[in-house]
Design goal:
Number of helices: 1
Strand content: 25-35%
Helix content: under 10%
Number of strands: 11
Low-confidence stretches: none
Structural class: mainly beta
Length: about 120
């Protein structure tokens, strides 16, 4: 935390605090510069977590499980979202779908889910 005071020419003062979070314990988060992702109806959209999810230095985002993958409207079957690897999944919207949808997935940045250094 950074505390500071500003004083103007007339002697008036104002105080404030700036909280600067650390980087060692920041969990993986979506990269705001990469979302929303865009898919074409009936065509697979390949999501590589390293392109869409930010992780701490020295760590890589990984999917927690196949069960964590969820698709919103526009997914016509259980095959619409598939886990390719622990860092990549694909979403294929229905060929007749048009409009926004959501993709939800769990991530961690440890070597495994049991890694005590992972978040």
């Amino acid at each position: 935390m950074l505390l500071y005071t500003i004083t103007d020419r007339d002697g008036g003062t104002a105080r404030a605090a700036i909280f600067v979070p650390g980087v060692a314990n920041v969990p993986p988060a979506l990269n705001p510069e990469k979302v929303p992702a865009k898919a074409k109806a009936g065509q697979p959209l390949r999501i590589d977590l390293s392109d869409y999810v930010l992780a701490r230095r020295g760590h890589s985002p990984k999917l927690t499980s196949r069960e964590s993958l969820k698709a919103g409207t526009g997914a016509s079957s259980d095959q619409a979202i598939t886990m390719v690897s622990d860092t990549v999944f694909e979403f294929t919207p229905d060929a007749s779908f048009y409009g926004p949808t959501t993709l939800a997935f769990g991530v961690h940045d440890g070597e495994s889910l049991d890694d005590p250094n992972g978040l």
